[in-house]
């Protein structure tokens, strides 16, 4: 199971909000936070890291705010996690088994190898999944899903959009 903290999830959601913002306008930090229902300061640090990584452009003053600085097809989930200093590693318990440990039971070595394989697949998927893919899948869900699922997705999208 992959563990992403609230800061990472908020950063991804913020990028999605910015991607859905009417072009070429900018959004204020408070507006992004309101659309996401966030009040904590960790969001501010995440937004700062996204600016620092060149994923989001920031402008102060009248007409200022935030907007994406790259197309959504160029922003992978892994690049967002890396910009935040997140590894995107699976959340496992028991820690790593040292390589070459002589007294480690075989089952622990098998578990290590299994979780390393899972981690590699997760990293691969996150490295090729773009925000454009996420937006496309969200649109497909709202069009093709069962009516009750589509309605829940629409409600979530409306909440993010502030509709």
Task: Give a topology summary.
Elements: H1 6-20, H2 29-36, H3 42-52, E1 56-59, E2 65-68, H4 77-83, H5 106-128, H6 131-144, H7 147-161
Antiparallel strand pairs: 1-2
Helix pairs in contact: 1-2, 1-3, 6-7
Provide structural commentary:
The chain has 163 residues and is mostly helical. The protein has one domain (6-88, 130-161): Arc Repressor Mutant, subunit A (Orthogonal Bundle), CATH 1.10.10. Helices cover 57% and strands 5% of the residues. It is built from 7 helices and 2 strands; from the N terminus they run αααββαααα. A two-stranded antiparallel ribbon has the order 1-2. Helix 1 (6-20) crosses helix 2 and helix 6 (131-144) crosses helix 7 (147-161). The longest helix has 23 residues, at 106-128. The radius of gyration is 19 Å and the shape is elongated. It starts with 5 loop residues before the first helix and ends with a helix. Residues 90-94 have low confidence and may be disordered.
- Note the gap between the termini: 33 Å
Shape: elongated
What sequence of helices (H) and strands (E) makes up the elements?
HHHEEHHHH
In the CATH scheme, what's the topology name?
A: Arc Repressor Mutant, subunit A
Largest sheet: 2 strands, antiparallel
The CATH fourth-level homologous superfamily = Winged helix-like DNA-binding domain superfamily/Winged helix DNA-binding domain
What Rg is obtained from the alpha carbons, in whole angstroms?
Answer: 19 Å
Oligomer: single chain
Strand order of the largest sheet: 1-2
Ranges where pLDDT stays below 50 over 5 or more residues in a row are: 90-94
């Amino acid at each position: 199971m992959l563990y992403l903290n609230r800061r990472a999830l908020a950063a991804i959601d913020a990028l999605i909000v910015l991607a859905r913002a009417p072009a070429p306008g900018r959004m204020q930090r408070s507006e992004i936070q309101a659309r996401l229902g966030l009040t904590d300061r960790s969001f501010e640090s995440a937004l700062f890291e996204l600016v620092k990584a060149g994923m989001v452009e920031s402008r102060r003053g009248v007409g200022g705010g935030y907007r994406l600085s790259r197309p959504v097809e160029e922003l992978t989930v892994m690049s967002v996690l890396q910009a935040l200093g997140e590894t995107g590693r699976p959340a496992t318990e028991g820690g790593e088994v040292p390589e070459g440990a002589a007294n480690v039971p075989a089952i622990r070595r098998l578990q290590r190898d299994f979780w390393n394989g899972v981690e590699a697949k997760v990293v691969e998927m996150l490295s090729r999944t773009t925000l454009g893919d996420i937006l496309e899948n969200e649109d497909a869900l709202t069009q093709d899903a069962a009516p009750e699922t589509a309605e829940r997705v629409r409600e979530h999208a409306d909440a993010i959009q502030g509709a």
